[in-house]
Amino acid sequence: xxxxxxxxxxxxxxxxxxxxxxxxxxxxxxxxxxxxxxxxxxxxxxxxxxxxxxxxxxxxxxxxxxxxxxxxxxxxxxxxxxxxxxxxxxxxxxxxxxxxxxxxxxxxxxxxxxxxxxxxxxxxxxxxxxxxxxxxxxxxxxxxxxxxxxxxxxxxxxxxxxxxxxxxxxxxxxxxxxxxxxxxxxxxxxxxxxxxxxxxxxxxxxxxxxxxxxxxxxxxxxxxxxxxxxxxxxxxxxxxxxxxxxxxxxxxxxxxxxxxxxxxxxxxxxxxxxxxxxxxxxxxxxxxxxxxxxxxxxxxxxxxxxxxxxxxxxxxxxxxxxxxxxxxxxxxxxxxxxxxxxxxxxxxxxxxxxxxxxxxxxxxxxxxxxxxxxxxxxxxxxxxxxxxxxxxxxxxxxxxxxxxxxxxxxxxxxxxxxxxxxxxxxxxxxxxxxxxxxxxxxxxxxxxxxxxxxxxxxxxxxxxxxxxxxxxxxxxxxxxxxxxxxxxxxxxxxxxxxxxxxxxxxx
Length: 507
Ligand SMILES: CC(=O)SCCNC(=O)CCNC(=O)[C@H](O)C(C)(C)COP(=O)(O)OP(=O)(O)OC[C@H]1O[C@@H](n2cnc3c(N)ncnc32)[C@H](O)[C@@H]1OP(=O)(O)O
Known about the structure:
By secondary structure, the protein is an alpha+beta fold. 31% of the residues lie in helices and 23% in strands. The protein has 15 helices and 19 strands. Acetyl coenzyme *A is lined by residues 22, 94, 170-171, 232, 234, 240-241, 243-247, 325, 352, 356, 358, 385-386.
């Protein structure tokens, strides 16, 4: 029998939205929202608040991206009247809630913590609306040490090679993965869009039943797939409703203790959820240094190790909850797990409809999964994704303990670059590895993005003008074909190759 002082359990969860799509609430700073979510999580434990707060030894925060804090866990601790010994705030990355839950569980299993809080929240809707109205949130009494939107480091956007190719935003990079995945699965562009629309319609329904969802309005597959007013094409093949929605005010909190502490505090055994543990992996942050853009080596590795450690098979999970900033991410989770393609891997609702509070989305997933597991099911897999599919972490929760207690590993495995050598300022033919086009507000392709392979196996990448974008907007349908490119410092001229009877190449 595993020592109950070393078995990590979730005893309380809480999350909220402040305002909702089309109906913003009064501006509130993230710390306020996080404090309220924490109060909800503490209440959810059923334990008298003072008994619990006095025993909090750890507060770990997921980084807030909409407002700057020097010491968010410290500020929260003060508001709660807690005196934690261990506090930390993560760097940026959507995988952190899963990785932190694994870390906290590891520390409880290690005996270095007994009562921990895991928190996160964003107020990007408040911040954007306030600045648009000419009001600095600092003038509303928000925390000003240091306060303000966090300083922006262009290097966070991508490697030098990615910056050269213009691949400096998730809205541009995730469609490249989507289109390559579609090609690898033998799907046409239309089939890829159909899958995204079906999946996201199901997510919309889930969000409709989640009281913390930012946009609970029901969207059908047709609403999602068809560009039009309120759903402009952003980057092929994703219209607006397939893009993460960052302008939200949402927060979440999770209380984790040892099983022994939970029992001492009087938490009923059937209220606790066991953190079996997880696994994580980090791919090279330089997307262009990854050999295979139709899969996530880091996700595959995380899943393999988590399943091996827990001795589970993909079909053992009653609930699978994917990070869902863009459709390719839940699709990859389904593919890497080998689940049927009509699987709906969410009980949260995805970034488009539940809302996309950046780094803390998966905290809301942990809340939604915990609430669902208490009602229905035995085992859940929660997935977090950060960067450009760079940071992956999955964690397993169960209604019953694993026979060996905590079996996870919070330390990610670092995967090496696998791409071929790059060719810069190349002129000649390339086979398209993946391609996409970003659309302007006039509804036309404005910038194209291409990754290709030269006949001698080197990698070419760059961005195009509107003429190139018009060609590359065929996305998945174009992959595997050969085009002629001229690369001038990352600015590509792209021309179709029309093969004449004499095999001439013409522009
Ligand atoms: C690991 C990761 O998490 S990677 C993902 C990280 N998250 C992101 O990268 C966010 C990606 N999304 C975005 O940047 C933005 O949503 C964009 C650029 C796609 C669209 O933003 P905008 O250009 O400002 O939106 P646009 O002008 O087309 O539409 C405006 C309206 O739609 C809303 N809106 C903006 N984005 C979205 C969205 N993704 N989904 C639904 N509605 C949206 C706005 O709130 C606004 O509504 P209002 O008119 O009621 O005020």
